[in-house]
Design brief:
The protein has 64 residues and is of the alpha+beta class. It has a domain of 29 residues. The chain is 22% helix and 19% strand. It is built from three helices and four strands; from the N terminus they run αβαββαβ. The strands form two sheets. The protein has a two-stranded antiparallel ribbon. Strands 2-3 form a two-stranded antiparallel ribbon. The structure holds iron/sulfur cluster. The site of iron/sulfur cluster has 14 residues, from helix 2.
């Protein structure tokens, strides 16, 4: 499963803390406006979904 097909960021509540980028740099990155992007074509395992969402302190990483 591809991360960008599964997840989206609730930018309204994202703190831009960088926690997701630090934990999963292969999935998340900041764009030039310090907005979190989910990289394309990154394969993740279904058993890791909750762990990945769990890195966000405000639950801004949500499933589509
Ligand atoms: S961990 Fe959550 S609040 Fe922090 S930058 Fe990522 S999506 Fe935003």
């Amino acid at each position: 499963m591809q991360a960008d097909k599964i997840f989206k960021i609730n930018h309204g509540i994202c703190l831009k803390c960088g926690g997701c980028v630090a934990a999963y740099p292969e999935i998340f990155e900041f764009d030039e406006n310090q907005k979190i992007l989910i990289k394309e074509n990154v394969e993740i395992k279904s058993e890791d979904l909750e762990k990945i969402k769990g890195v966000c302190p405000v639950a801004a990483i949500i499933e589509k």
